[in-house]
Write a structure and sequence with these properties.
Distance between the termini: 50 Å
Strand order of the largest sheet: 10-11-12-13-14-15-16-17
Shape: globular
Structural class: alpha+beta
């Protein structure tokens, strides 16, 4: 009798397991519309290009994961437009997860989370392309020594890159705390604005406080180490959003 129950439970787990994947699948189309149309777009996730669109409006099929997707669109004569397609759990999948917990002790939900079937990306993405030289200064302000960096960066998440390196994610807390996600590890630090410069420090013993001159625009600031060589590549912002959208923890996870 006991063996029969075990077999029946295993069969039920296999039948129900992966129901999120069956309901919504492990891939999804993300639609992109731009005004005006005809822009080419690049999709990036975790610093790697995962697909392109030759001309908008169009859609791209992507695999589902827990990681957000950055979408950058370009059109001759216009500034680059950037958007973030956030990865979250849909209502239909949330209901399936609840069912999985009851019927399979959450086993199938764990499997679906691993493959990304329980996530869904924002779509459609709608972007307004701004003509080069045609935007008022109030829309795309230029940054400099007089910029209020505290107001600019507090409670913001920045996706940054230096040269051709991979994307790193920084969250600037309103309390002066900084959390940096670099690959699979996170580092806790602090940030402050001093004499028109941004200064960052981390808790690791081999890290010293570095200060940066800030340039670029309020939506895509750039940071240059004040002690670096004149020809050193600046740190560029690919995307900036309000809030801790990556839910970065305040503690650290060891970096390799």
């Amino acid at each position: 009798m006991h063996i029969a129950k075990v077999v029946a439970a295993a069969a039920l787990t296999l039948a129900v397991g992966g129901c999120a994947a069956i309901v919504e699948g492990t891939s999804q189309d993300i639609a992109v519309n731009t005004t005006p149309p005809g822009a080419s777009c690049v999709f990036e996730r975790e610093g790697a290009v995962i697909g392109t669109l030759p001309s908008t409006p169009a859609s791209l099929s992507v695999s589902k994961t827990k990681y957000n997707i950055t979408i950058r669109c370009d059109k001759p004569g216009y500034q680059q437009a950037v958007a973030l397609s956030h990865s979250g759990t849909s209502a239909a999948i949330a209901a399936n997860i609840a069912l999985d917990v009851v019927l399979t002790l959450g086993v199938s939900s764990i499997v679906d989370s691993a493959v990304g079937a329980d996530n869904k990306y924002d779509t459609p993405i709608v972007l307004n392309m701004v003509p080069i030289g045609g935007a008022p200064a109030s829309v795309v302000p230029q940054l400099g020594a007089a910029t209020d960096l505290t107001a600019l960066l507090a409670d913001k998440t920045l996706y940054i890159t230096e040269g051709d390196s991979k994307v790193t994610v920084d969250y600037y807390g309103t309390d002066g705390k900084l959390t940096r996600k670099d690959g699979d590890c996170t580092r806790a630090g602090s940030w402050s604005a001093k004499d028109g410069q941004l200064c960052l420090g981390f808790s690791a013993k081999d890290e010293t406080t570095k200060c940066y001159a800030v340039s670029g625009t309020a939506t895509q600031p750039a940071f240059r180490d004040v002690n670096a060589a004149a020809d050193a590549a600046p740190i560029s912002t690919r995307f900036m959003a309000k809030g801790n959208i990556e839910n970065l923890p305040g503690d650290t996870k060891a970096c390799n």
